[in-house]
User: Fold this.
Amino acid sequence: MIRTTTLIGAAMAALMAAQALPALAKTPSDQLVIGMDMSSMRGLDPQELNQFEAAEIVANLYDRLVTLPADDITRVEPMLATSWTVSEDGKSFTFTLRDDVVFHSGNPLTARDAEYSLRRLVKLGLAPARDLTQWGLTAENVDQMIRATDDHTLVVELPEVWNSDLVLYSLASFSTSVVDSALVEENIQDGDSGRAFLQTADAGSGPYTLRTWRANDLLIAEAFEDYWGGAPAMTRVLLRHMPESTAQRLQLEAGDIDIATRLSSSDLDALSGNPEIEIQTTPGVGFYYIALNQENEILANPKVREAFRYLIDYDGLANSVMRYYGRMQQTIVPAGMPGALEENPYSFDPARAKELIAEAGYPDGFTLTYYATPVTPEYEIAQSIQANAADAGITLDLQAGDHIGDFRERNYEVFSARTGERLPDPHAVLQSYAQNPDNSREANLAGLMAWRAAWDVPAELQDLVTQAAHETDPARRTELYTTINRMYLESSSPLITSFQRLDARALRGAVDGYQGHTTWITSWHDVTKAE
Assistant:
């Protein structure tokens, strides 16, 4: 039931938002205007950022060796590399690069820049470095393993054999963007590898060049006329900071923006009947999850972990806030990938949860602090779980805010949010959710979800994940991932998945060629707008 007060509040919010917005002209036919919440964008260094909205920008400022088309993310296509070969032993990849590419600075792009960029990614050792370090590349060996043999040939060597598709998928990630090495070197400050410079500057060769970025306000990217792939149709792309869903919806309806992002389900519903608006959902390699810190004695009890699975109103959420943002899934291999299961064995049952916590030794319940991000739909999910937990005798003190740092440092009890991996393969999720080689705090393996949850993952499960990543036979990989999927579900993991991530956008009907990308590398190059 929707309460009258909620409807009144929504109406008032919409009225206030409409009054607060400036009157804007319709967007020009050669410019694309995107509304988004830019509050989490902290910089544009491709080898440092790990955030959805910033990744899309970087994917258009920079090029990579290879790319994955939005309509088939498992098909590796040439980008800067025109061709590549894999050695007989499976350890060495040799790329031949284009000879007609220039950076926005005017400097020619060569294999030396690719060498510099991939080495920089590994040596910085930040979160995106995992795209390469998971294959055995380290700060100590990368200078030997990644090398340009001439201006147009790059060799990427690995210490051991991995499935070659996984390696190529990694090289299509925005983190492996090729930066203008000469420009970056000129702007190094106090040995920072150019990090300060690249937060707000552009050292790329992509179809767009950065003109203006004002944090939490506006970003303008302009078409690069000398782009090797041809100048894009949109001469300018403008991203406007619009954190309120209602404001985005109203401006999209008015034609003041072309694309709206992270709208609430209610606003998407309001737009769904508009013939001038298209709602686009893109599957993501990630999940909406609850993390239960295993350093907490209560949460370390398997029965308590199991109880939390019954506190999620799967059907209720699927029919409300998750209609556009998630596909119900309780298993760990994303739908459509090798080893995926069409099984959701748990249902909403607070009474069963209450029985389980009593069996765990807490008949009178307990109180825990619950951190959640205050964005849609994560916060709505958290509010639902908090209310359901109360029915089971569990008090969750819900605290909204930017607690991702606490999560990465294990300084939490219960945390929920969503993940987004960039590798279109089960390994992307499993190597984070189901591997934790050293569970000690001193190891600080903050890049792994399992470490953040302080989960001492069963050794057999970890070994199978590694084995599957090495396996080159597709049928055998499917068998392994099916086994891993079932083992994860039966292990009562403290990382509880409920919905596979979808990314929703609303577009004006005049926009053509904009297709959200599963691995965050959405391209603006082929976007056009009807007159």
